[in-house]
Amino acid sequence: MPAAPPPAPPDTGRAVAVALLNLSGLGLGYALTRRRLLMAACWVATAVLLVVALPADADGVPGALLAGYALLLLLAAAHGASIGLRTRLARPGRVPLALLLGLVLLAVPAGGALWYQDARDEAVQQALLDRLASADHLVAADAGKPFGTAEPDYREVLGVYRGLVADHPGSRAAHKVPASLRTYYTNVAAPYDSQDYCTAVAPLTYLRTVPAELPKATVGTLAGWPDDRLATSLYACGSQSLSAGDQDWVTRFGDLMKTFPGSAQTAKVVPAVDAAVRKAQNGVGGSGSCAAVAELRQLDTRIGDLTTAAGDPGGKLASAASRAGRGGDDGAYDCGVQEYKSGDFGNAQQTMDTFVAGHPHHRNRARAQKIAIAAEVAQTIPAAGRKLPTTASGGGISVTVKNDSPDDVTVLYTGPVTGSFTLKGCGRCRSYLLADTLMSTFKPCAGGKDYPQRTLRLPVGTTYFVHKPNGGRATTAGSDTAELRPGYLYTECAYTTQGFGGSGT
Q1: d(C-alpha 44, C-alpha 25), whole Å
Q2: Measured by CB atoms within 10 angstroms of the end CB, which terminus of the chain is less buried, N or C?
Q3: pLDDT tens-digit profile of 341-379?
Q4: Are the beta carbons of 31 and 82 closer than 8 angstroms?
Q5: How far apart (Å, rounded) are the C-alpha atoms in residues 277 and 282?
Q6: What residues does 412 pair with on adjacent strands?
């Protein structure tokens, strides 16, 4: 038996038929030309391709594998054509039938490619839907978390949405993005629905940036969804801060006025500030005067800050600031009275001195001066601060105050009447040694000198004196408590000892 059939006359049709049969990927051209090993090689190549390609997924078949398989089919077709040109066919032996079979079998790889492409497209759709579902799940998982903690996740999800609508606009997942975006907005803005307005400001501000990241058609009406909610949150948070006395209200109201200048919420800012000023003004005059004064002064400053940051159409904020400033200045007197009554004599003196300096024509200025003097006396003699001084003056008891000191001395007194004056230093006087003051014969203001002096007319009762050295080496004030009775003449003597100030009668 010969190893191969004898060569046949060349037949182009037969060569084409073998080539077409080999293009099917099943090696049938080799089968008709009795080349079984080559047919098996075609089967193995096709099997490898099917193992790699199935089941179809979004990534598809590697390009190198497809290119190699296509090259293999072309080589098999060319090689089969070469063999079929001079080799008689096994059954079916007729060339027309083989050509028809080759053409029919070409539908196998073509149909398989179309089927595979459809399967791969579906796999891509499912992968995109899975990506969307994972993003939506991440949004749901962040519910209840602080915005600062969840914000990176929100931005990641937004990137997924953007990628779906930009890179896969015709996909089923891209068509579902608008619905997911509505849920996204609702979850991010959850603090607003809980009326946690201060917490809602940051996420609502963030949501206003989302439309810039997505196509307009995808965002739709959501583009303006956060605006009214943000304006409401800014106003409500600012109002809460204003009522609590925090400083944050300036920032909240400022952002509201700049971002939504024509909104109904912005129109409420001036009335809210006016109400806060009136409330603080109403607090002046009672036990909370000092707190009210501090609040009014703070309001004056903060309203000015708000005006600088956001403007003041109509000058209404400037008017409120002016009223707050005047209220704080006028209320300083009541604050000083409150401090005096509570025994805070140091602050009472400072408050009244400031009030007197700043209100040269105020109706309470004269009494404020008296209270400042009494508060200073009470810092040395606490009993002097038991009663609030009046503006009364004069009396029937003569009290002469002399200065037996080389330094000027300011004499302050309070009791039924209150006042102060300064005595010039005694030019021929000296500071006494501490040992001198301990001797029984010590009698200041008894040397027959022409002491600087002043005579007061004081009412009967207890008067408290403080002699305060002005300059020189004496720094400590001396004090005396005088019980004044009718029928007596009284003398107060101011003197200094070396190293510290002193006084005596």
Answers
A1: 10
A2: N
A3: 999 999 999 999 999 998 899 999 999 999 999 999 999
A4: no
A5: 9
A6: 420, 466
